[in-house]
Design brief:
The complex is a heterodimer of chains A (274) and B (272). Chain A has 274 residues and is α/β, with parallel strands linked by helices. Helices cover 28% and strands 17% of the residues of chain A. Chain A contains 9 helices and 12 strands. In chain A, the strands form 3 sheets. Chain A has a 6-stranded mixed β-sheet. In chain A, strand 1, helix 1 and strand 2 form a beta-alpha-beta unit. Chain A is globular, with a radius of gyration of 18 Å. The two termini of chain A are 30 Å apart. With 272 residues, chain B is an alpha/beta fold. In chain B, helix 4 packs across helix 5. Classes of the chains: A alpha/beta (274), B alpha/beta (272). The interface between A and B is medium-sized, with 16 and 16 residues.
């Protein structure tokens, strides 16, 4: 079975390419024979080039050029996908376990979105602190941070609607929120097409990820960052601990300064990257 | 395979845990038809217990005992014997219960019928409904899941022996574990030690060493008052939200309840 992953990275004031490289290292550290592709126009450091079997330029110009939050090229992922199927990941994620078996489940779907995420304590997030608009507008709770795509015509249709929504944000979603959001766009696309049941499944326990937005962790107080609330440790065996909990599966760290030199060095050392 | 209930009862200057244990034993025989052994530090001559096991406590804490929302006292809290339950229990299959658990149904018999070797109370339901229950969800704000040592079922297996040895280790190094798991307050609590030990036995992840005991269990806190016991009918005064010293009358029937107000439990037992 193919185990394909793809990410899109566009540097801004943050180095998303470096995040993608760390994510790719985490994939190769946990999953044998995984394929990882990166879509980017930015330079990938020489030592990380071998992590990717394809480095693909963003096609058809840079639609995110004028935007700080660069989501406007996301819809192109499917069009340049070098595989028959793949899991699309946000760059600020770490794969901490072999999740190959997820593909066995995912291959039943032309396109699939995670709709339930977890806290670092492996508890399902029930709180809509960051998703009030989803609740208010009764939108399907889709997360594009981890989703699965294939070259099925239905997936192309979905991505085409996604593109139209993002490029015409004011018309489609200006009343919902000012800034374009891929998650809201995907939820709107699913609503417009009427395909929620076909693109997610809230009864399954995976695919999912640990979502480290601070105010959905079940803590008493609201916090700007999770790193101020709970300690993180990365061991020499590539294990990530948050507080008293060893992390499993996919970890979405969300805070750009989480990846420090020590984490990179440990991954590099385990993969023999000099 | 021998089956039975183990209770721990150590009186202090105001609370008669042994009379609570006697009540529990009578109820256990009536509803569950199980023998009851008591672990204590004084001599007891009461035929409701199948075994009286003497235990020298290692230490004691001081804890604030509330008697409704307006009254409290700092009293000796002798709770370190429970970590020795594995060695003390005369049964192959043991149900450990708090003495302040008023049995009024036969739900717990299912512990002995299910296949898991270690079960513990997780589905505890506050009878009041409005109180902040986060302290019963996690041992501290950012730490691990909370388990109630109020009801624990275990079989004598090698793995459970390791669990109880680990509990003993946690107890002996309580200051360290209290820090690591960010537990506030000075009092050693079995709930916390059991929760930490389960987390460790689970390999520091969400796992299946401990499974919930069958069903859910109602509890009232020490801010509430047990007003009356009439066989399996219990009448409580449940504290009102934002109205200190005011209560709502609640009655339960044929339903077991964990009664944390020890003063009113003692009083109700005297009047039963």
């Amino acid at each position: 079975m193919n185990k394909n992953f793809i990410m899109l990275a566009q540097n801004s004031k943050y180095n998303y390419v470096e995040q993608a490289c760390v994510c790719a290292m985490s994939i190769h550290s946990t999953i044998d024979n995984a394929n990882v592709s990166l879509i980017t126009n930015d330079k990938v450091p020489e030592k990380y080039l071998d992590l990717f079997d394809n480095i693909i330029p963003i096609p058809w110009g840079d639609l995110a050029e004028k935007h700080e939050w660069k989501i406007h090229n996301r819809w192109k992922i499917l069009h340049v996908l070098p595989y028959d199927d793949a899991i699309v990941l946000d760059t600020d994620m770490l794969i901490l376990d072999d999740i190959s078996h997820w593909f066995e489940f995912l291959k039943k779907y032309p396109i699939f979105f995670t709709s339930r995420v977890k806290t670092y304590r492996n508890e399902w997030v029930e709180n809509d602190f960051y998703r009030k608009k989803f609740t208010k507008h009764n939108l399907p709770n889709l997360y594009t941070g981890l989703h699965y795509i294939t070259k099925d015509p239905f997936a192309f249709e979905f991505y085409s609607v996604l593109d139209k929504i993002i490029q015409n944000w004011k018309d489609f979603a200006g009343d919902i929120q000012k800034e374009a959001s891929v998650d809201v766009a995907a939820a709107l696309a699913a609503s417009i097409i009427g395909c929620e049941e076909s693109v997610t499944n809230s009864n399954v326990t995976y695919p999912t990820f640990v979502h480290m937005k601070p105010n959905i962790q079940g803590w008493k107080d609201i916090s700007e960052t999770w790193q101020n609330k709970v300690s993180a440790y990365f061991t020499n065996k590539n294990e990530l601990w948050i507080g008293n909990h060893q992390q499993q599966g996919v970890f979405h760290y969300t805070e750009k300064d989480f990846i420090k030199e020590d984490i990179k060095k440990i991954y590099e050392s385990s993969l023999g990257i000099l | 395979m021998s089956k039975g209930i183990l209770v721990f009862a150590f009186n202090n200057s105001h609370i008669n845990y042994i009379s609570q244990a006697i009540e529990l034993s009578k109820r256990a025989k009536r509803h569950l038809n199980l023998p009851v052994s008591i672990v204590t530090d004084i001599e007891i001559q009461n035929s409701v217990f199948d075994n009286v096991i003497f235990y020298n406590l290692k230490s004691q804490n001081i804890k604030q005992y509330y008697d409704g929302s307006l009254s409290n006292k700092g009293l000796a809290f002798k709770n370190d014997a429970r970590i020795a339950a594995y060695d003390l229990s005369p049964y192959e299959e043991t149900l450990v219960l708090d003495t302040d658990f008023l049995i009024a149904d036969d739900k717990l018999i299912h512990c002995f019928k299910q296949k898991n070797d270690f079960c513990i109370l997780t589905n505890a339901v506050d009878i009041a409904g409005f109180r902040d229950i986060r302290e019963f969800c996690h041992v501290s704000d950012k730490s691990v899941q909370f388990y109630w040592a109020t009801i624990v079922f275990f079989r004598k297996t090698e793995l459970n022996k390791i669990f109880f040895d680990l509990l003993n280790h946690i107890y002996e190094n309580w200051y360290h574990y209290k820090q690591v798991y960010q537990i506030e307050g000075r009092t050693y609590r079995n709930d916390h030690a059991f929760s930490i030990a389960i987390h460790i036995m689970n390999g520091f992840v969400d796992n299946d060493f401990a499974v919930p005991i069958p069903g859910s269990v109602l509890y009232t806190t020490d801010r509430d008052i047990l007003y009356e016991i009439d066989q399996d009918d219990f009448v409580f005064l449940i504290e009102k939200e934002k109205r200190l010293g005011e209560y709502t009358l609640v009655r339960t029937k044929n339903q077991s309840v964990h009664v944390m107000n020890k003063f009113s439990l003692d009083e109700a037992l005297k009047n039963e």
